[in-house]
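Exercise 7b. Backbone tokens:
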């Protein structure tokens, strides 16, 4: 499966792959965090461990065909019923505002 291989400071950190994979680097109050995630074939959200980055860290990201990946730390099941309820609430709200 094609995915990401991430190394920080030349140390292998993680291999991430899913139907939809992503790597976010976020700055939250001067703390930089690498957050890998994805979505699998059943539309479940996948989360791998986040990594706090320090000043001077060197990040190496390779896109490659991975034989194995790290197992996600957390799998959040797809909740289509919750999405449908949220959609219906938003639809009513937008209709009341004359936007639909």
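Sequence design result:
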């Amino acid at each position: 499966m094609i995915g990401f291989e991430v190394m920080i400071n030349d140390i292998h950190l993680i291999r991430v792959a899913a139907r939809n994979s992503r790597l976010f680097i976020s700055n939250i109050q001067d703390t930089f965090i690498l957050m890998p995630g994805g979505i699998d074939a059943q539309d479940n959200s996948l989360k791998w461990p986040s990594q706090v980055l320090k000043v001077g860290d060197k990040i190496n990201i390779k896109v490659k065909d991975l034989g194995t990946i790290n197992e996600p730390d957390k799998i959040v099941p797809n909740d289509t019923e919750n999405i449908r309820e949220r959609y219906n609430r938003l639809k009513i709200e937008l209709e009341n505002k004359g936007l639909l």
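Instructor comment: The helical segments are 80-96. The first strand starts at residue 2 and ends at 8.
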